[in-house]
């Protein structure tokens, strides 16, 4: 194992995830050095709006929005514009970094994309906030329509390692995800690309996913830790492997492999890293506030307080 954590091989990366917890402080220091160099002490906050919820044709086992899930969630075809713009103003007024907008589903008709692009254009005109959309597989033409409407960043997660993917979803392939990402990259979109840890995968699968993400070189890498949601295929998934130490090792590895990217601790931070936020921010420079697509989370005020109490900075004007 290298001492400097430079140019990590897959074997080095695996030994990081498997290292004894007593070695974690050294790893955190190495991650912090890179975080400090590229991101200073700042933490970005993102707000997530679920613009279309539920009834998805896909069978992603962790997802409450899959048509196969029996989770008790609100389902709707398209969010009311007033709610979308209210969230947009929250991003603007609270000086959050970005408005992330997720839509359930994997494919959209051209009419649906045109209607959505119209709402985005209106939102951008009113609030002028940076927008990122999570919106399944797009055709090149649909992506172009969204680009012209003002979407400059798209989220498309890999979710897990290539070999493990068929265990969490069989209605589309890992390769389809990769080709969608490649197309978006070619078209000049900024990319947000991460995954979920705790799906029953091995540490080797996490390493495979993080190396695949490294080749994509996204602007942002959101790392989620599974929140097993009642009614989903993963409601009984054990999360015993998600100790705070393991979660911190994954986040540090994400930073070491993608030093310049925004490393975001997304869903699960409230569950697995409570009280360890100071250490989390040694690797992470970005979080969500006000919850996730179908799970609640810490409010904006509590998130800002948490960042400041951890000794990091969130730039806000009173
Ligand atoms: S993760 Fe996306 S594609 Fe998969 S079931 Fe949920 S909404 Fe559908």
TrEMBL record:
Keywords from the UniProt entry: 2Fe-2S, 4Fe-4S, Biotin biosynthesis, Iron, Iron-sulfur, Metal-binding, S-adenosyl-L-methionine, Transferase
Reaction catalysis annotation: (4R,5S)-dethiobiotin + (sulfur carrier)-SH + 2 reduced [2Fe-2S]-[ferredoxin] + 2 S-adenosyl-L-methionine = (sulfur carrier)-H + biotin + 2 5'-deoxyadenosine + 2 L-methionine + 2 oxidized [2Fe-2S]-[ferredoxin]
Q: Which Gene Ontology molecular function entries are recorded, alphabetically?
A: biotin synthase activity
Please name the top-level EC class of this enzyme.
Answer: transferase
Chain sites annotated for binding [2Fe-2S] cluster? 100, 132, 192, 264
Which cofactors does this gene product need?
Answer: [4Fe-4S] cluster; [2Fe-2S] cluster
Annotated ranges, domain Radical SAM core? 38-260
Quaternary state and partners of this protein?
Homodimer.
The molecule here is called Biotin synthase
Q: Which organism is it from?
A: Clostridium boliviensis
